[in-house]
């Protein structure tokens, strides 16, 4: 996909100096027995800091499901969101928040939440969470919501999905969950109906992309229809 660089669970649009991450699910650690060695806040803030250092964006767009719980945000979750905002501002980047289906109380934490965020540098790009159809036209949409993953040699990896001309003739780029605690849809054998996002109704032409953090390189796979024939 032109004009996009892929990083660890996030993408950077150089023409607009914009970093996009999705599905942080802040509070997921509190809501389950699953934990991270460093703790949820440290894990999220440290990894966001790495992306900020790599890309030096002017804007960071959080593309929905910033929060995990539907019924409220604990003080710990609120402090984590504040820490993410502080990380952005410390890197001279402006944070922008897009509302996801989990973000029923995000407006109470942030006064600047919207359903979409438009980027006009290069192809007109609209960032939305992907749980509902956007009312804004674009050349491409950047979404989250389904947390795509791919299994390679028995190992599960977060992946990006590039789906060409799938919504109103526009391309869709689906991001993996930035949270490492959120399970996702394994795309190896998935069909369009296995996804919850209404922007993608077929996965035959979808191309998975995996960022290999150890190698610092991007692995690009053929379309899923071709990929399945190779298995």
UniProtKB/TrEMBL annotation:
Alphabetical list of InterPro entries matching this protein: Calcineurin-like_PHP (IPR004843), Metallo-depent_PP-like (IPR029052), Pesterase_MJ0037-like (IPR024173)
Cross-referenced SUPFAM superfamilies: Metallo-dependent phosphatases
One Pfam family named in its UniProt record: Metallophos
Calcineurin-like phosphoesterase domain sequence ranges: 19-131
Domain of life according to the entry: Archaea
GO MF annotations in UniProt: hydrolase activity
PANTHER family (UniProt xref): BLR1149 PROTEIN
Protein name as annotated: Metallophosphoesterase
Species: Halobellus ruber
């Amino acid at each position: 996909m032109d004009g996009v660089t892929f990083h660890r669970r996030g993408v950077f649009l150089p023409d607009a100096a914009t970093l996009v991450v999705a599905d942080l699910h802040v509070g997921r650690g509190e809501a389950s027995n699953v934990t991270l060695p460093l703790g949820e806040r440290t894990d999220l803030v440290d990894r966001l800091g790495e992306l900020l250092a790599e890309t030096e964006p002017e804007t960071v767009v959080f593309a929905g499901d910033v929060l995990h719980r539907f019924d409220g945000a604990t003080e710990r979750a609120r402090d984590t969101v504040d820490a993410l905002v502080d990380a952005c501002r410390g890197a001279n980047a402006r944070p922008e928040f897009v509302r996801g289906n989990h973000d029923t109380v995000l407006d109470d934490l942030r006064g600047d939440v919207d359903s979409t965020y438009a980027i006009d540098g290069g192809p007109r790009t609209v960032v939305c969470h992907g749980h509902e159809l956007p009312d804004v036209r674009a050349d491409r949409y950047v979404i989250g919501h389904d947390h795509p993953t791919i299994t390679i040699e028995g190992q599960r990896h977060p992946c990006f999905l590039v789906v060409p001309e799938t919504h109103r003739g526009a391309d869709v780029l689906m991001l993996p969950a930035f949270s490492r605690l959120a399970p996702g849809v394994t795309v190896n054998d998935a069909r369009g109906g296995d996804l919850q996002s209404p922007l993608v109704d077929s996965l035959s032409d979808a191309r998975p992309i995996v960022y290999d953090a150890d190698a610092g390189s991007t692995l690009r796979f053929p379309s899923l229809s071709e990929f399945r024939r190779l298995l």
